[in-house]
Specification:
Elements lengths: L3 H47 L3 H23 L15 H6 L4 E3 L9 H5 L6 H11 L5 E4 L6 H9 L2 E6 L2 H17 L1 H6 L6 E5 L5 H7 L5 E6 L17 H7 L19 H14 L4 E11 L12 H9 L4 E9 L20 E8 L3
Parallel strand pairs: 1-7, 2-3, 2-5, 3-4, 5-6
Antiparallel strand pairs: 6-8, 7-8
The structure holds S-adenosylmethionine.
Catalytic activity: a 2'-deoxycytidine in DNA + S-adenosyl-L-methionine = an N(4)-methyl-2'-deoxycytidine in DNA + S-adenosyl-L-homocysteine + H(+)
InterPro entries: DNA_methylase_N4/N6, MeTrfase_CN4_CS, RM_Methyltransferase, SAM-dependent_MTases_sf
Protein name: Type II methyltransferase
């Protein structure tokens, strides 16, 4: 006969075993995907090498070395997950790796398609993956109200989280919506392993409509919000001088800014108005968010042509503090971005290759 104690022990044991099994499948899929990405980076490196673009080849090989380090960590350094962990599915060892206050993430040249290039300011899916893995558990809901071309959507798919998002520009939204099927069509193995109940509720809409869309769709409460709004109207401000990246984009026929829409937060010229409208938007999401949900909002301080820095990330944090608890900031660094020789040879103008990933928590 089974005593109640041994029964509960056994059921606990088998539920842990189930979780272990699920983790093994998750890691196998992730490793498979990362191996594919590594191969692409290696091929890009070899190609540059053959074309005697040694600087580019060196960048690709450095990227490969970083990726290999990450892959090694994933494969070997899992540590133990405890049931007391209510925030994520990570072990103690992995947890530490996610709490250092800065992270270096660059896009993978091999996976940057024409559609991705066409968007003036997307973040790499691996950046969103890194944070989503820390702030949520598998199967939870992630929101991105400024979805762009869907880097968060792809990261949710990779980490097996559900995703709810809005994007104003129909061209970007269409790409975000087709992004997952494109990945699946290329990778049959991933198609077999994807959980049937994973959902992506993503809409071509003004983020101001997110609450009603969320209600109409009966979307569950959101566990984590990660997004990067337009950095004020910076894309519309010419930097002048040496040919800027933006000017080069125009020559290649790529989008220079997001849209001409009056609803686009990138078209609000008055800085005070931009900061207060953006804060109001996030406050309007409170009913969608779980009571203690975290929000990560990625911004950059700006330096327009007049040379005076506008610390919009810091100012925004101060606005938001009135409504949410400001917990911390992560600094996202880009190590392989084009560096211009701005200001040379008279004036200090930096290459701004870092962004503030501000972490707030839905209050009390
Ligand atoms: C910095 S980008 C986000 C890029 C995104 N993280 C990605 O990786 O693709 C900001 C996005 O906000 C969108 N946007 C601007 N105003 C909006 C609004 N009112 N509602 C929804 N999206 C908006 C822009 O079209 C742009 O794609």
């Amino acid at each position: 006969m089974t005593s109640p104690d041994s029964f509960s022990f056994r059921s606990k044991f088998s539920s842990e075993e189930e979780k272990e099994k699920a983790l093994v499948t998750q890691y196998r899929d992730l490793l498979h995907q990362k191996q594919g990405e590594l191969q692409k980076t290696l091929q890009a490196g070899l190609k540059s090498f053959h074309e005697v673009d040694l600087a580019q080849a060196a960048r690709e090989f450095r990227k490969l070395a970083n990726d290999l380090k990450l892959l090694e960590k994933l494969a070997t350094d899992k540590g133990n997950h405890t049931d007391r962990n209510t925030l994520n599915d990570l072990s103690g060892k992995q947890w530490i790796q996610h709490t250092k206050s800065w992270v270096v993430v660059d896009g993978r040249p091999g996976s940057i398609t024409k559609e991705i290039k066409d968007h003036p300011a997307s973040f790499p899916p691996s950046l969103a993956e890194f944070f989503i893995s820390y702030f949520t558990k598998r199967g939870q809901w992630v929101m991105d109200p400024f979805m762009g071309i869907g880097s968060t959507v792809e990261a949710c798919f990779t980490t097996q989280r559900n995703c709810f998002g809005t994007e104003l520009n129909p061209k970007y939204c269409e790409f975000a919506q087709s992004r997952i099927s494109k990945i699946l069509n290329k990778d049959k193995k991933r198609k077999e392993n994807i959980p049937k109940d994973l959902q992506w509720n993503i809409f071509n809409s003004d983020a101001r409509n997110a609450t009603s869309l969320w209600q109409d769709q009966n979307t569950p409460p959101i566990d984590f919000l990660i997004t990067s709004p337009p950095y004020w109207n910076m894309l519309k401000k010419s930097r002048g001088g040496v040919k800027s990246v933006l000017k080069q984009r125009v020559e290649k026929g790529l989008d220079e800014y997001y849209s001409e829409s009056q609803h686009d937060y990138g078209n609000i010229d008055d800085l005070a108005g931009y900061l207060s409208q953006l804060t109001d938007l996030f406050v309007s999401f409170k009913p969608l968010l779980k009571p203690k949900a975290y929000l990560m909002i990625i911004l950059q301080n700006c330096r327009p042509k007049d040379g005076e820095m506008r610390p919009i990330a810091w100012d925004f944090a101060n606005h938001m503090k009135e409504h949410f608890i400001l917990r911390q900031e992560f600094i996202w660094c880009q190590d392989q971005k084009f560096a211009g020789i701005w200001g040379y040879p008279t004036t200090y103008v930096s290459n701004v290759h870092h962004h503030y990933c501000l972490v707030f928590q839905n209050s009390r």
